[in-house]
Structures are given as C-alpha cells and as structure tokens.
Amino acid sequence: MNPDAASTDSPALAVLELLAQEAPPARLEELLRLARHRGAPRERLDELEQAVRLALDVHASVEQRRRREAGLMALIDTSQAMAFRDDLDDLLNSVTSQARRLLNFDMAWVSLSLPDGGSYVHTSKGEITASSVGLELATGLGLGERVLRTQAPLWTPDYLTDDRFSHSPAIDEVVDSEGLHAILAVPLTHDGTSIGALYGASRGRRHFSPDEISLLSSLAVLAASAIEETRRLERLRAGQARAEEERSVLAARLHGLEQLTGIQARLSAMVLTGGTPHDVVDLARGELGGVLSLRDADGRTLAGTGDIPSANPEHVVRALAESQASEAPVALTDTVWATHVTTGVEAPGVLLMQRATPLTEEEHRLLYAVGQTAALMQLLAHNAGAAAGPARDECLDALLTAGSQPPRRMTERVRRLGVDPDRPHAVLVVRPEAAKQGETAVWASSYAYRHRGLKTVRGECLVLLLPADDPSAAAHAAAGELSRVLGHPVTVGAAGVAPGLGSVAKAHQEARRCLDALVSLGATGGAASARDLGFLGLLLSDDHDADTFVDSVLGPVLDYDRRRSTDLVRTLEAYFTSGSSPTRAAAHLHVHANTIARRLQRITELLGPDWQQPSNALEIQLALRLLRTRDAVQHDPASAYGREG
Description:
This protein is α+β, with helices and mostly antiparallel strands.
C-alpha cells in the first residue's frame, strides 16, 4: 500500500507502515503535509496529526535507545582499551580521543588535581594552539573548580559570557585562542575523592542533553578507575625499581665491606710481621689508586708514592682535628683528602691522598684504616726503640770509650741495633738548657730510633750518633725539633764520623769543644760544627784541616784564579797588606788603580758584599796566611796565587 495514498483513508496504518520501514522523521512530516494539501477531512487530519506525533515520539525513543546502546558499546570498548594501558600519558590520550568521538566534541582535555588544591591540564586533543597542556587551573576559578568541589557535572553553552562562576584570565585567554564556546566538564572521582576532571568542548554554541552528560560522566568513571590503577602500577614499578636499586646498592656495599675486611686483614698481617709504613702506603695505592703521602708533624715525608702539592698548613691542622673527631678522612680540596695519624707519643702526622675521582664510602673507611695502621706501626717502632734504649745507650757509651771492644764485635753490635756502620755519621752533643733531663732523654730515644742512630747521656748533655753527610745540617735539624718539644732553644755541637765508626770518640770530643765554644761565645741556643765556627773551628778540630778552612773561606776566588789565570788572591793579600788601601795595593802590584778597583769588584761578586766586615776580613787574612805558609812549605809559591804581573 502506498502510505501517501492511504494517509487519508487509514492514517494510523500509513504511519505504522513508515515506522516499519524505519523512515526518517521527515517522511512522517511529509505525510502530514500531503494530507493537508489534498484537503483531507478534519477528522482524518486530526487522527493523522496524532498518529504522526506519536510516531515521532516512538522514533525519538528508538533513536535515543540506539544512541545509548552505541554509547554503552563504545564505553565497553573504551574500558577494554583502558585495561591494556599501563602508562598514564597513553591512557589519558585514549580517554580524550574517545570523548571526542563519542560526543562529537571539537576539543577534549583532562585536568589532574595538585596537592595544593589546584589542578593542571595534563592531556589535550583537538587543540589548535600549544597553550592548553600544562596550564595550571588556580583554586576557586573556572568551570572545573566547581566541578572538583561539588563532584557534579557542569556545562555552559557559551563559556566566556557565562557569569555563574569566577573566571580566570589565563583560562579565558586559552578558551578565546581556541575559539571555544560550549564546554562540558565532569568530575574524575575515585573512592569519593576528586582526582581531576574530564572536559569536552565545541567551537559553537551547544546545549548538552542529559544523555550526553551521562555518557561523558560514565566515561569519566571508567577513566578515574583506570587512572588510579595506572598510578598504582607506576608506584609498584617505582617501588620495585627502588627495591632493585637498594638491593644492588646493598650488594655493592656488602662486596665493598668484604673487600675492606680482606684489606684490613692484610694490614693487620703487615703490623704483625714487621711491615713498614712504605708497605702500607704501597698497599693503599694498589687498592685506591692516586698518590699517597705519609708525613710527620713537621711535614716531612715518611713514606709516599709520589708528590702531592703542599697544602695550606692551617687547613691541614683543621682537617686533622676534624678527622680525629669524626674518625674519617676529611677533604682538603676536590682532589685531596687527609686523615690523621696519631700515635699518642708524638705530635699527630697526616696521610694525604690525591685522586681525580671522589672516594666511595668504603674507600673513605679504607683510607682511614691505612692511616691508623701507619700510626700503629710508628707506635710499635717507638716502643721497640724505647725497649732497646738501655742497649743503645750502652752501645754508644762503648763507642765513646775508644778501644773498649774489638771493632769487629762492635760492628756486629751496632748492626743488630739497626745502625749502618758503613755510612757517614755525625756525633751531636746536645745541652737542653735548663730542661728536665728525663723529658729530653725520652725525646732523644725516639729521635735516635726514628733516624736509625744511637743515644746516650753524658752528664747534663745528650749524645746522639746519627747517619749524616753534613754534621751541621744534622745539628740544626735536631736542635729545631727538640726546641719545639721543650718550648725553648737548645745548644748543639756537632762533628763528623767517617764510615766504620772508628772515629766516634774523637768526633765526640770535637763536638763537645764546639758546644763549649758556642757557650763561651754567648751563642747559647745555637747549633754548629767546627766548619761553622770558621778559624775558631779550625783550632777546635782534632785534625786541624787547614785546606778545608782555606777552601771554605777563599774557595770561589781560588777557583776563579785557576780557571781564568787571574791574580785575585794576590790582589787580596796586597790589599790587606796595604791597610785596605786600593791605591797603595796598586802601587805594590805595579798596576793602575782602576785595575785594582775592577779586581775588588770581582772579589765582591765572588765572596759577597760583606767580605770586608771585620769578622769576615779576619778569616780571609787568616786563610791567606795559611795558604802562603802551606805553599812555602811545599816550595810552590805560584800554586795559589796565579800568574805574576
């Protein structure tokens, strides 16, 4: 049957036929229009209008149910898609894409809550500017703030003209730049807590139906659960990563502690088997790398693997105090560390380490253990030296008493005490100058042991036998350390001992005479050998080595005359013979006065500007007399005076 023809005969049947054909609403309205055009009776027309109205209601209901079913199917698909998202960014990208597709939005975005009560835009789809993602939504402003506070959906057909909520200039600027009008916002809630909001927007005015609001709200419920699950998985993965990292760190620390325990066992073995600080420092270099230097309280290197630039003494002292208090090394610079080396007997020393890379916790402990091991070795050495003190005193007393024991037995005896008889030595006679003798004797025992020497006491003086090529330098070194220990100067006389130690007694007598000379001259608190005392030392010396004295006074001038065949020595003699008159010296040598002036200038360059001072001039004249006497005895008057003329 043709519905158009039957519309006037059987209106209800015509409408039902169109409904059965699922004709669009326009066909129903067209059916009513044709009936009116054909002049259908009033009764038929009223019946047709009522049938069309009911058919349109049925059509709307069917369409609404269809949309709901489509929405529900889409939600099911979305839920399944969310179930496989384990990354928050990926999840929210899917949520905003689904929101745009389901409700035909031009733009959709998700905001997440911040701890301070505000929120920020995390993800956006459909935007035409780059100003939305990351935008912070301040508390109390904007459409979303009310949604978060009330946990209820809210929409506006035209956002910028809606005065139902407080506007934010930043949000309004984004809305305007995106060209948005209608906006729908629904809360993202989980366990009664708002975690954010889901937004959909159109670039034209739009009124959202309850079904649209319900559909977006359902999507938000699914999204909120998925967001919290994703966050939980992320926290779980982060916790697992932290646990794995902690396990790795713990394993590394356990390995480091095992290594540290093994190294400490090796350090202990070194102490028990008589190792030296050199052995300890070498072990530390192998384990730590870098450069190490073990120094005493005076900054002298006791053992080391290389040079470390001198550190600021004040910084070192401060670092030693901090290291001793914290029982750990202290950083002097970014590349240098220091740890204290305290024996309890002497002033604290320091172990320095230089390395380009920072130290680990285990390496800090190892460096500290190395310092303590070095301190223990020094303490044991000191105690051993103190224990052997009487034997050392007796040995040196025997050496000072010439002929008391055969040389062979004496050589074996000194070797057993750690003294090398084949090296040159010096005998030092030390007068403490009103100090307590017991205090100085303890120092002397330690000093002699540390320097592989011997010590004894003679009257009010200490006597030390120390390895030394230069007796004067040895005297000054010992005087300096003992003066710091006692807090006041000490007087030291010194003399050299040839290898073999056969001249110890003779050197002791010379050193004692030097000490007496210093006291007689009022030089208490000084240190000197016979060579330091000039011609007085020549008189005090047992061997009266005139050649050495002459060379020490005139050596540069004699060398110059020999190399240049000049007459500077002869000029000096003429100068002093003429009463220090250059003119009379020139007449005596039959040369021009300018020649004498040039020679005297050269002598000044060789002997120094003070050579004409009375004390220096006296020694020069004595050296000239000894030189002339020696040459006269040897019948070689020209040997020391150069050429004639």
